[in-house]
Specification:
Layout (H helix, E strand, L loop, with lengths): L1 E6 L5 H10 L4 E6 L11 H15 L6 E4 L2 H6 L1 H7 L4 E3 H12 L7 E5 L1 H6 L1 H8 L5 E5 L3 H6 L6 H11 L7 E5 L7 H8 L4 E4 H12 L10 E6 L3 H12 L2
Helix pairs in contact: 1-11, 2-4, 5-7, 5-11
Bound molecules: D-glutamic acid.
The site of D-glutamic acid has 18 residues, from helix 3.
Length: 247
C-alpha cells in the first residue's frame, strides 16, 4: 500500500505520525505546500485550486490512496480532489466526525470544534456532526494557535494567555475536535486547560480508525519508505519531520 499525504505545510506530519504508529503503509509520500501556507486564511476557490494542483503532483506516483491531512482542504476541496484523482482521496473531517460519533454516545453532548478561520467558516464539521444527530455544537476559530505551534511555543505564558483569550467565555466541552493539523501538538496543554472530562478528538488517530474500519489492512509495515516533498524549502520540512517523527 502506497499513500500520498497532503497538507498545506508541515502540520500534516501529525497525521503521518499516527500512520507510522499503526504501520499501515509500505510507502508514504508527503507533500506540503510550504510555499503557499497558510491555507486557513484563504478563500474557497483558492483552496480548491491549490488542492487540485496537489493532485497533479501526486500523479507522478502510483498511489493507492491520498490522505488529506489538512482540515482546511478537507473542509472545502475533497469532492473536487476525488474528481481529479485516479485513487480514493480521504479527508480528516469525515474521519473526525465518525471518530466522535463512535466515542461520544450522548447526542446532546457539548462538542467544541476548533480550527482555522476557513475550516470554521465552512461549517463542514458542524454539518457532518448534525447528520450524526449531534445538536449541541460550538465552533471557534483559533488561528493564533497555528503560528504558536510553528514557533514551538507549546507551553508557558503566551500559550496560556492565548487559550484564555479563546476559551475563557466558553463552557467546558465534553468533546473537543482538534480541527487543525497543528493542534495535536498542544494535546497536553489543551487537556490540562479543559480537564480530564473533555475528550480530545485527534485527526491522525481518527484517520487510522477510519481506514481500519473501511479497508482491509492485512499487513503491517515496520519500516515504511518515507518521502517528503515541499513546494518551498523541502530541507526544512525534512528536518522537522526528523524531529517530530523521529525518523
Ligand atoms: N493545515 C491547516 C489545517 O489543518 C493549518 C495550517 C494552514 O492554515 O494552512 O487546517
Amino acid at each position: 500500500m502506497k499513500v500520498g499525504v497532503f497538507d498545506s505545510g508541515i502540520g500534516g506530519l501529525t497525521v503521518v505520525k499516527s500512520l507510522l504508529e499503526h504501520q499501515l503503509f509500505e510507502e508514504i509520500i508527503y507533500f506540503g505546500d510550504t510555499a503557499r501556507v497558510p491555507y486557513g486564511t484563504k478563500d474557497k476557490n483558492t483552496i480548491i485550486r491549490y488542492a487540485i494542483e496537489a493532485i497533479e503532483f501526486f500523479k507522478n506516483f502510483e498511489l493507492d490512496m491520498i490522505i488529506v491531512a489538512c482540515n482546511t482542504v478537507s473542509a472545502y476541496a475533497l469532492d473536487e480532489m476525488n474528481e481529479s484523482a485516479s485513487c480514493p482521496v480521504i479527508g480528516v473531517v469525515e474521519a473526525g466526525v465518525l471518530a466522535t460519533a463512535n466515542s461520544v454516545k450522548d447526542k446532546n453532548a457539548n462538542i467544541l470544534i476548533i480550527g482555522t478561520n476557513a475550516t470554521i467558516n465552512s461549517k463542514a464539521y458542524e454539518d457532518a456532526l448534525q447528520l450524526q444527530n449531534f445538536s449541541n455544537l460550538h465552533a471557534k476559530a483559533t488561528p493564533l494557535l497555528v503560528p504558536l505551534v510553528e514557533e514551538e511555543i507549546l507551553s508557558g505564558d503566551i500559550l496560556n494567555a492565548t487559550l484564555k483569550h479563546y476559551f475563557a467565555e466558553l463552557k467546558k466541552p465534553q468533546a473537543l475536535i482538534l480541527g487543525c493539523t497543528h493542534f495535536p501538538l498542544l494535546t497536553k496543554e489543551l487537556q490540562e486547560y479543559f480537564g480530564k472530562e473533555t475528550q480530545l478528538i485527534h485527526s491522525g488517530d481518527a484517520i487510522v480508525e477510519y481506514l481500519q474500519n473501511k479497508f482491509d489492512f492485512y499487513k503491517q509495515y515496520k519500516n515504511p519508505r518515507l518521502k517528503f516533498f515541499a513546494s518551498e524549502n523541502p530541507e526544512a520540512l525534512r528536518s522537522i519531520a526528523k524531529k517530530w517523527l523521529d525518523v
